Amino acid sequence: MKKSPLQIARAAYQPKVPASIFGGNKLVEGKATESVADQADIKKLFPNTYGLPIVTFEKSDTAVAAKAINVGVILSGGQAPGGHNVISGIFDGIKAINKDSKLYGFLGGPSGLVDHKYIELTSDIIDEYRNTGGFDIIGSGRTKLEEESQFDKGLEICKKLNINAIVIIGGDDSNTNACVLAEYYLAKKTGIQVIGCPKTIDGDLKNEMIETSFGFDTATKVYSEVIGNIERDANSAKKYWHFIKLMGRSASHVTLECALKTQPNITLIGEEVEAKNQTLDDVVTYIANAVKARADKGLNFGTVLVPEGLIEFIPAIKKLIQELNDMLAANQAEFDKKSVDDKIKFIIEHLSAENAAIFQSLPAAVSKQLALERDPHGNVQVSLIETEQLLAEMVAKKLAQWKKEGKYNGKFSTQHHFFGYEGRCAAPSNFDADYCYSLGRVAALLINSGKTGYMSSVRNTTKPASEWLAGGIPITAMMNMEKRNGKMKPVIQKALVKLDGGPFKFFASKRDEWAIETAYVYPGPIQYFGPTEVADITTETIKLEH
Amino acid sequence: MKKSPLQIARAAYQPKVPASIFGGNKLVEGKATESVADQADIKKLFPNTYGLPIVTFEKSDTAVAAKAINVGVILSGGQAPGGHNVISGIFDGIKAINKDSKLYGFLGGPSGLVDHKYIELTSDIIDEYRNTGGFDIIGSGRTKLEEESQFDKGLEICKKLNINAIVIIGGDDSNTNACVLAEYYLAKKTGIQVIGCPKTIDGDLKNEMIETSFGFDTATKVYSEVIGNIERDANSAKKYWHFIKLMGRSASHVTLECALKTQPNITLIGEEVEAKNQTLDDVVTYIANAVKARADKGLNFGTVLVPEGLIEFIPAIKKLIQELNDMLAANQAEFDKKSVDDKIKFIIEHLSAENAAIFQSLPAAVSKQLALERDPHGNVQVSLIETEQLLAEMVAKKLAQWKKEGKYNGKFSTQHHFFGYEGRCAAPSNFDADYCYSLGRVAALLINSGKTGYMSSVRNTTKPASEWLAGGIPITAMMNMEKRNGKMKPVIQKALVKLDGGPFKFFASKRDEWAIETAYVYPGPIQYFGPTEVADITTETIKLEH
After folding, report:
1. Other C-beta atoms within 10 Å of A308: how many?
2. Is the separation of the CB atoms in B374 and B328 below 8 Å?
């Protein structure tokens, strides 16, 4: 593997960790917890892992000699910067506890546990991946651990390898499943512990005790770098409106964070569109009004940030998609055989009158995409809709109409961009390198303390790393009951953008000014060296939330 | 203007310059030059600026007291990182010569000179823009300075502001026009000098004496950062082929440099496609073969780099576009009135049989784009063709056919990207910050030496900046005669990728290995601080050329 000069220099970086987990430390148990909602239901489903206390590690003089620990680690779901550092943190953590400890990596995601595909992660391997981006050390995958037969297959390999604990590095669903697995292994008295780690660039796995999911910091910095560069280009060439879609699934955290960093003219927040019950035309009109206001000042350029999940948040379209998913699931075999035109006809005939009308009102490219592209579960693939192009086209149409009516007299040329894959595997920022490595070290301590059904937690992250608080949060405490595929399930509550939260409120207080003025900020690329205010600060989101 | 922490830290950076231009220096004249071709024609067109000697600045103890100089500066054409540093270099240079010197910036490109739109650039303004990206200090524009009436308007404002010299920062065409202007002002004995500076991220303005155009280093670093991140994602998720189109107009330098930095599976070089007289199907087959070879090894993912200008280099399509441009120009009024379907019909009816057949063989989206999108000169807008999507679709079609025939048994899912605006206004790398500032300082020295029709030159750039060679190159020496809009014109010879040059030859020796193996390199983001091998190295292209 040929390495770039930066990779070589970066390999030597020693991540910073909370002072409390270095040298001797002791575990302090807090009060028993309750789930965030549906307490009775969750308690019934998790009799052994419900109500556990939050735990914290504090500095202590008495270093405890401990037995060797064998751990199996799994990367689950989409890539996020810092995954390799979680793994190196676990490795160093269990080796610090006892040098004979072993770390196994299950290959290609959760399916590696079920199919018994694994490697032993030795120091030679680990050292190649410290402070690097990507999940390529063992690969990731999207298999869901949900069936008891899968759990039993996992048990087999754990017994064979003498594995004491599994660490699952994943998003909300993967951590939910980690807890189901912990409960199952506890009920069966297998002695195998399960610990989760909060991963996702989307930023939607967080709560009072988990301040952020890892990767969010790095990914939003990469996106903000290129958004800033595009803004500077817009302000230099003065001839394009740039429509920029950003990854983040249904939550708009990524878009909001990038907006706080770069101050674009327009930022759409899906959660607000839903709360205000806006239509697609409302959104288009909102943008067109800003374009007009800037054109009146002679500014025929601008930037618009669009969250990937926007379309789903428009209530009318959300309803349409729900009915479409249910209808297509019920008629899949018949539907799949039809030609494109017949598929569209079939949809219109089988939807309710209200949703058929909305379906027919969409631009042809979008209705076609809704009809044709389906994920492996048969669901409409909302993420494939090129919302940034759709909006640009609809705004152009509206402005052309306004021009005819004499209400608008500017120029409107557009460029569109979609950023996602550009940031998921970036080398972690200093923050994510430190945060992830600490999460891994804390996971090792939780395992050594015999804990299971916990998520590794590192808090107080707006302070220097030495002051961070380390501990574990019972996963059941984050759960509520939600409908999934027609059934009520216990799941970790997804953290959407809170319209009464600090980040949104700050944004909302500034956006009218940003819309009309050219108030762009140019963050530039992630710096790994240089002054601390350049290289070590984390997100505006965390700052405004805490 | 709110500044990011990096911008604030970066403002303090003092660009490095050649030792020879610091303190006292003297101008040394070399031998008289000849143009690269068509010497008699060029000499006839440029009687006053033809045959001038190359000049070099050497260190000297005798500092010469000099008069104040007033300079007007123009940014011409597309943005490139470092433009602001050229301007700050000119500013510091003329102030070092005499503190009463003044710098004027013409606004919005060359039209600012003609329309008398300008500002005086004071130290307060200059200090806000040191080491920043963008051309927003005075804006840029694409007006061509070609007419004597424009030159005369320029003369008026120069006389009014007592301007001694104009510096035009631009690409090959803008520098050609700078020389035409220099010749005109010399012939008219106006006393106004004109100096050019080599700008373009495309990297196609270079020759023996001009090692690189500024911005190429920074832009290719930004693109390589995100390409590397995508490669790492591809290698982690192992499920997508990423098709990545890169800016660079007709030359493939940007794509080649990014390939040398990131080692993707497939890289297309337009100049090679042309030299080998390849068809679109040849290109598609070449990619499909690599996809198949990797699939045979179980690797159903990869990365493909596509230069923006690829389509134009495919000889058959180039001929089609030429005939299309001529035919549409001759029938513009009639054509513009037609509906979309009628336009396509009209084209097919009016093209030669051979080109009509090629037009009809193109995917519908491409033929439609060729028919509909035209630039202000009436030309087909090749840059709008989404080549990366076109190729992905055509490769998918071919693989589906091979699957039917039992020749291929892999999975082929694609993602596509286009990077251009992401890099043109990035804050300049240390190299571009130093190089641009030096170009500006050298421009000031050339003016002080009474030179006109010269391009500012800084050579020996693979060495530390202190060892760089500073001087000036007569612009006529870079010229030849080419057909433009049907007429023979003197122009600076465009530097396309040389298939017998170091960069291409190195790439060609490695590409078969890169196609099959996963040999990705992850350069990471531009570092402004940190070790010199991380922060200060320039392009692979320059290294392999010198």
Report:
1. 26
2. yes
Distance of CA B332 to the CA centre of its chain: 31
In the DSSP assignment, the letter for residue B166 is E
In this predicted model, what pLDDT tens digit does every residue of A369-385 receive, in sequence order? 888 777 766 677 777 78
Residue pair A203/A212 in contact (Cβ under 8 Å)? The answer is: yes
Can you tell me the distance from the alpha carbon of A339 to that of A345, in angstroms, rounded to the nearest whole number? Answer: 10
Query: Of chain A residues 60-79, which have a CB less than 8 A from chain B?
Result: 78-79
Tokens 């610990």 correspond to A195
Q: Supply φ then ψ for residue A121, to 5 degrees.
A: -90, 105
> Are B137 and B129 a contacting pair, CB within 8 Å?
yes
Q: Is A152 a catalytic residue?
A: no
Nearest-neighbour CA in chain B from A163: distance (Å): 25
- From the list B173, B202, B204, B217, the catalytic residue is B202
Q: Residues of A with CB below 8 A from B519's CB?
A: 2
Please spell the DSSP secondary structure of A322-362, one letter per residue. HHHHHHHHHTHHHHHTS-HHHHHHHHHHHS-HHHHHHHHHS
CA-wise closest residue to A427 among B525, B517, B216: B525
Cα–Cα distance list, B284 to A131, A274, B391 (Å): 38, 44, 7
The answer to whether the Cβ–Cβ distance between B9 and A531 falls below 8 Å is yes
What's residue B65's pLDDT? 67
Question: β-strand A266-267 against A102-106: which pairing, if any?
Answer: unpaired
Residue A323 has pLDDT above 70, yes or no: yes
ipTM of the complex: 0.96
Exposed / middle / buried, residue A249 (Cβ in 10 Å: 0-12, 13-18, 19+): buried
What's the predicted TM-score (pTM) here? 0.96
Put simply, the chain A residues between 180 and 199 with a CB less than 8 A from any chain B CB are none
Quote the CA–CA distance of B254 and B308 in Å, as a whole number: 10
DSSP state of B500: T
